[in-house]
Write a structure and sequence with these properties.
Layout (H helix, E strand, L loop, with lengths): L7 H11 L4 E3 L18 E3 L4 H14 L3 E4 L18 E4 L6 E5 L4 E5 L4 H10 L2 E2 L12 H6 L7 H4 L6 E7 L5 E4 L12 H5 L8 E8 L1 E2 L3 E9 L2 H15 L3 E8 H10 L13 E9 L5 H14 L3 E6 L3 H21 L6 E3 L5 H13 L5 E7 L4 E7 L6 H4 L3 H14 L15 H7 L2 H14 L14
Parallel strand pairs: 2-4, 3-4
Antiparallel strand pairs: 1-2, 5-6, 6-10, 7-11, 8-9, 8-10, 12-14, 12-15, 13-14, 13-17, 16-18, 17-18
């Protein structure tokens, strides 16, 4: 069924109903996405202050058959927050709903509105002596609603899980404007379908998350961080297993980094000095969190020595201070920035069974070499099987010129991932960028169930039209 545009007349009706400041002309930031792959449309943005106002906006859109595109911090990487095609939608921003409503330290729980920035949630947890472990590069601008809607991952999934594992309850407005009041703080609640997990990861296609109760954790008293050169991806996996055994499962991050990342930093950020003088072919950035009284640095030193004896690791550096730890993580966080400056042909957020990762890394370059000459930069969250396997043009060739091969490269990489039992979308979601891949590679029974759920909850198709499901 065709949707209508969110035109000036519709925006005027909403403004009259909601009052001053609730409806405004869209700004350039509402139409941009970080990798500049597309430009969105939509002339008006709704900026509610309360869940009741969100419900009123959704009801008005449902009655007028106007599409809604939820907008959080604008940090999504798969075009989930912008609509390049179709009737211009109403952009729904929850940035004015940013309150930390309450913290229960004794329950390890925190209630936040969907517009709360991740860094603010982390800070509120820290003030209460607790940890909210979701951590990613965009935490200074990414908002809780968008992070839950995409089931964000980040650096600490290995120990604490994805975003959905950090949620106890959800408040959301459904496509008919009704409010799902699910802000419970219960660890056990078997009272029928768990709609919390239906909305988390749905990318705004089944409703608008307006608030959530989030799980907190005791903060590790002692943290140890090390950057270690490893012989190969297989050696990195063996080192991960050894680290888990020696620390009793207290590894909270384990990042794999290829030499190409060091080369890109030297090319794109020449003034930067990396933490090791000689760039290794492969290295891992590992972090452990231990209880009070434990010697995290000593544990890492013992691990590095045993790894060297087994031929798994060679050179490396163990952080001796908070500043050195921060420097190691700055190195990791600069890799995406170097990628951005070089300019990718095609970027891939993939997940594989851990044991398949070495074989994939060995096989994948030959797959794209049949299409053209490229440079490959692979890094990512080895501990949970999530790699960022990115394809770049040869040095001296503009990325724009090489992007003619992007669809073919993406299809070839995603086909190989699928054949090896992996996922072509690990932590970034489907958005609009990967809709065709989902339709082509998704399990038919799962896709049929997803379409049935979409039809049942959003029969008019107003919620983030064009995202996740084709048609």
């Amino acid at each position: 069924m065709a949707l209508n545009p969110a035109d000036a007349a519709f925006a005027g009706q909403l403004a009259a109903a909601l009052g001053p400041g609730a409806i405004a002309p869209a700004e350039p930031r509402h139409h941009e996405e970080p990798r500049r792959r597309a430009v969105g449309q939509g002339g008006f943005v709704a900026r509610p202050r309360t869940t009741a106002e969100v419900a009123a906006i959704v009801r008005a859109c449902a009655a007028a058959r106007v599409g809604i595109v939820p907008w959080g911090g604008g940090t999504g990487l798969v075009l989930g927050q912008i609509a390049p095609e179709g009737p211009p939608p109403l952009i729904l921003s929850l940035e004015r709903m940013a309150a930390i409503r309450r913290v229960w330290p004794e329950e390890n729980a925190l209630e936040a509105e969907a517009g709360a920035v991740l860094a603010a949630v982390q800070a509120a947890a820290a003030r209460a002596g607790r940890l909210f472990p979701l951590s990613l590069a965009s935490q200074g601008s990414a908002r809780i609603g968008g992070l839950l809607s995409t089931n964000a991952g980040g650096l600490n999934v290995l120990r604490y899980g994805n975003a959905r594992d950090l949620v106890l309850g959800i408040e959301a407005v459904l496509p008919d404007g009704s409010v799902l009041n699910g802000l419970k703080r219960l660890r056990k609640d078997n009272t029928g379908y768990d709609l919390r997990h239906l909305l988390i990861g749905a990318e705004g296609t089944l409703g608008v998350i307006t608030a959530a109760v989030l799980r907190l954790f005791p903060a590790p008293a002692e943290t140890g961080t090390a950057l270690l050169a490893v012989a190969s991806p297989r050696a990195a996996l063996d080192l991960l297993a050894l680290a888990q055994e020696r620390t009793g499962g207290m590894v909270q991050a384990f990042e794999l980094i290829h030499r190409q990342g060091w080369d890109f930093l030297a090319e794109a950020v020449p003034d930067y000095r990396p933490p090791l003088a000689a760039a290794p072919e492969w290295c891992v950035l590992a972090e452990i969190g231990l209880a009070a009284g434990a010697d995290a640095g000593g544990a890492l030193a013992a691990l590095a020595a045993e790894a060297a004896e087994r031929g798994l690791a060679a050179d490396g550096v163990i952080a001796q201070s908070g500043a050195q730890r921060e420097a190691l993580w700055t190195f990791r966080e600069m890799l995406p920035e170097a990628n951005r400056r070089i300019g990718a042909v095609s970027s891939h957020d993939i997940a594989l069974p851990l044991s398949e990762i070495p074989a994939f890394i060995e096989r994948a370059p030959a797959v794209v070499a049949r299409i053209g000459a490229f440079r490959i930069h692979v890094f990512g969250h080895l501990g949970d099987g999530n790699l960022h396997w990115n394809v770049f043009p040869p040095r001296g060739v503009a990325a724009e010129a090489a992007r003619v091969h992007a669809p073919e490269v993406q299809r070839a990489v995603h086909d190989l991932v699928h054949d090896m039992g992996g996922s072509f979308s690990a932590e970034h979601g489907i958005g609009r960028l990967k809709v065709a891949d989902l339709a082509r590679l998704g399990d038919p029974a799962k896709l049929s169930a997803m379409r049935a759920i979409k039809r049942a909850l959003d029969p008019a198709g107003i919620m983030n039209p064009g995202a996740v499901l084709a048609g």
